Amino acid sequence: MKILTLLSFFTAYTLTASVNIEDSAGQFFSSGHTNNWAVLVCTSRFWFNYRHVANTLSVYRSVKRLGIPDSHIVLMLADDMACNHRNPKPATVFSHKNMELNVYGDDVEVDYRGYEVTVENFLRVLTGRLPPSTPRSKRLLSDDRSNILIYLTGHGGNGFLKFQDSEEISNVELADAFEQMWQKRRYNELLFIIDTCQGASMYERFYSPNLMALASSQVGEDSLSHQPDLAIGVHLMDRYTFYLLEFLEDIHPASKTNMNDLFKVCPKSQCVSTPGHRTDLFLRDPGSVLITDFFGSVRKIEITMETINLTDPIKQMEENSGNDVQTENNTYVDQLPVSEIIHQKPKQRDWHPPDGFILGLWTLILLVFFKTYGVKHLKHVF
Amino acid sequence: YDILRGKLAALSIAAMVILVGVPLWWKTTQTYRAWLPVAQINELAKLQLQLSADVEVVFARGTATPEQQKKVPVTQTQDEDHAVDEDTTLRYRHETRYRTATVMEEDALKQPTAAEADLSLHRLSESPCGSLVIYVIPESSSLLPENVNVYIGQRRTALLRIGAQMKVGKTLKQLLAHLEPRVKQILQVMSFSHNDITAALSDRVRFSPDNKESIADSMRAFKSSPGYEITFSLLNPDPKSHRLHWDIEGAVQTYIQPLLTKLSPVANFSLDSQILYYAMLGVNPRYDSSRSAYILNADSLAHVINPVEARLGSNAASSNPVLNFLLYVPDAHHSPLYIHDHKKREVQTNAFHSPRWGGIMVYNVNGFYQTGTNFPVDVNINMAKVMGVFLAQLRLLLGVQSTAPPSSFQVAPCGSSGLADWELDRLMWSRSVENVATATTTITSLAQLLDQIGNIVINDNIAQQVSSAVTSLQLAVAELEVGNLGFALQYSKEAILASEKAFFDPSLLHLLYFPDDQKFAIYIPLFLPMCVPILLSLLKIVSEVRQRRREKQAKKD
Questions:
Q1: C-beta separation of A145 from B356 below 8 A
Q2: Which residues from B are below 8 Å from A145, CB to CB?
Q3: Closest CA to B221 of B360, B395, B424
Q4: A54-107: per-residue pLDDT in tens?
Q5: Is B445 in Cβ contact with A69 (below 8 Å)?
Q6: Helix axes of B2-16 and B516-556: crossing angle, nearest 10 degrees
Q7: What are the angstrom distances between the C-alpha of B22 and each of B27, B457, B532?
Q8: Which residue in chain A is spatially nearest to B390 when comparing CA positions?
Q9: ipTM passes above 0.95
């Protein structure tokens, strides 16, 4: 009897051991990606939309902390809050009241700033249709083994997202852009997070495979902001992103938390709106998808087993003696032509007819004069 | 008379609007769409690839009986058909020519070792790109050691040891039948194999392979690109203790450049190098007192790359994929540093690589310390050892290496250029197929996209790129059929360049999504006020004409 129990324990142990090895090997190759990209977009400008910039910068900070380098992040901020005239603490963007956490820091690399954040540029970045002169840092150079995280925040409505208070992107256009990315195999898996009012409407129209989407509120609901800071005078963060940031602060590059935990972030009691998610287009089970698959950048490693035996000695480079091209003496252009500045003559300005204000003023005076004294006096003038 | 004039005016205005206005409005709001060869594109959607390779099997003296020798030379063609999915079919054709060896070849085969025989055989004739020559040597030959039956040379030749005469058979047919599976085995290693080609088709066919090794293989190599950038970086975290000297220019010229020159039909390469000071690895190594060295576990290696990557620069001007090779010299407090694999064994090369990124090698310099040395120590790095590892990693990352050959095979080490000719052929086969597959998917999806969205403007230059891509694709497929590997690769590269240019043209941006209700909202305020009087007057005229006709009818009756 004892032997039987011992034997059963033994077999159970070996089974679990083999399953564990299989598990770790399986985990290693379960995600088919080799690199990670992130596209983080804040679409609203003006000082009272401080919280949208703070949202985006907090996600940027988490993503960088978990390993994605700046060269793989496309950060688009529609307005500059840190150097805004109304910022009482310049060069900072806070995400928590009482100014606990400065998410701006000193190594923020913004790729698209201010008026460059438009629907057209956003779609160009996603589909890759950028003019040839665009530098590398402004491109999304993903391939078919890239996992991409796309985070959008701003003001939105049922089926659209507002950019810069002047244009909108509709959910159909977004779905078409993702389909074009899929056609050209520009992503392996894509995680789409949106924190706007009625955010769930933006992922309704997706139809390409391997997309997972999270939104901060359902259609018909508004996403609310978290807390105002009395010193700065604006709301600092939106609720969904605030709790998302809190969740991400617990994640480190080697953690094994999966997506099901991410879906539970910010329940209705904390968020007032109901966050939603969509996983039907995603091929893998969300429980097997690690957070670091999208937010971090854990590299796959293989040990190099072989080496090539090289026996030739290094060729000595020929020393170029001085019979080269004559080095030209380069000089700088006169940087500050002091003499010219000192002896400047006043510029000749062209004569312009009197401005509209003066003309208007004279017309008013004439009208009043003729109103009071009657029109018959006009003939005295002419 | 006024009424008649009024009626004529209304009629003529209506006529103007309908005959002139409507076509004018239609024409001016039409988007310019240049003509695309849609029929040919749809033809290309169904890809039927045929890969041909020429194989020559040469019988040395002692392998074929005189009766068998009389019947050679003989040519056989073998076709193998595979249907990958409903749109893609593959056909592999091998044309095998059997002949006997010439006198000079017999002399060459009399060399003492297989490597020397390979060299002298190569001096006699050079096989064209994509073809193979297999020399069949008798069992008694001393060229190959006991347990080795096949020797694969550095160029495009292989030596195959045949079994004894009795086992093989009398007639030529039996001899050929005996040889066929052995030749096939050699072709699996030296020429294209089904696994490689289906992996190259991954753009068209998203298939899930059976085993984890093939997943790893397909993820490791960079995708086909017209150019690559290779960056060699020397990381010196401790300049106070080590003054490092590396002759990177000479090393690259001697060891790496020959490989890149050989690979020039495949892609362009640009090289640069840099030295980074005070760049630490992001991981703390463990101290192992039994070996009195510091150890990096295989699990912690995954976190090494990210902190360093932020420091590595890249060429802002090009969008080519970058291969990074890092040489890390550990600081004096953490020397020596060894890498352990998953089974806790020391790694011989002390290096590891990451798929589609590059490789890192740890170079220990504690051998340069003697007792009482003054820091900083001058260290001359042994570039041959370093480049040996980097070259092996470079081969892996470019997709050169493949599955290990069977146990009775002996593969010659690749020469000074780092790449055997047959390995280059294999790479060219898979690259051509990959380019053709990618270009066909790009063109067909572009055509589909332009068809679906009627509002996108198609400029002339896009139509021209598409046409040239289609032409190049057709040429590439034709050349692959015939077996001209060099031309096929060239055409496939042209095809992929043209198709990518057409697909990623900045003018093809679809920002014109108008839902139907928006279209009505735009046109109604413009056209309704104009159309209402015209319609009403027309109706009035029509009703008057009808009334008059009724009166006429009444009058008649």
A1: yes
A2: 219, 355-356
A3: B395
A4: 999 999 999 998 989 888 999 999 999 999 999 998 999 988 766 678 888 888
A5: no
A6: 140
A7: 9, 22, 16
A8: A307
A9: no
C-alpha B137, offset from chain centre: 37
The pair of structure tokens assigned to B497 is 């360049």
For every residue of A245-309, which 3-state class applies, written as one string? HHHHHCCCCCCCCEHHHHHCCCCHHHHCCCCEEECCCCCCCHHHCEHHHCCCCCCCCEECCCCCC
B321 vs A contacts (CB less than 8 Å): 143
Single-letter amino acid, residue A33: H
d(Cα A307, Cα A332) in Å, to the nearest integer? 51
Contact (CB<8Å) A315/B250: yes
**Looking up tokens 């980097």, which residue turns up?**
B390
Interchain contact A316–B (C-beta under 8 A): yes
pLDDT band at A148 (very low <50, low <70, confident <90, very high): very high
Interface residue A143 vs chain B (CB under 8 A):
yes
Q: Which positions ≥6 away from B194 have C-beta within 8 Å? A: B82, B90, B92
Global confidence as pTM: 0.80
Tokens 């491109």 identify what position?
A139
Is pLDDT of A113 > 70?
Answer: yes
Average pLDDT in the B217-230 region?
Answer: 84
Residue B211: the pLDDT is: 58
DSSP state of B21: I
SS3 A370: helix
Q: Report the helix count and the strand count for chain A, using DSSP H and E.
A: 10, 11
CB contact under 8 A, A297 and B203: no
Q: How far apart are CA B358 and CA B327, in angstroms?
A: 11
Percentage with pLDDT > 90 across chain A = 37
Residue B549: pLDDT band with limits 50, 70, 90? very high
Query: Nearest-CA neighbor of A97 among A228, A211, A186, A196?
Result: A228
Cβ atoms of B141 and B149 closer than 8 Å: no
Residues written for chain A:
382
Chain B residues near residue A127 by CB distance under 8 angstroms: 504, 509
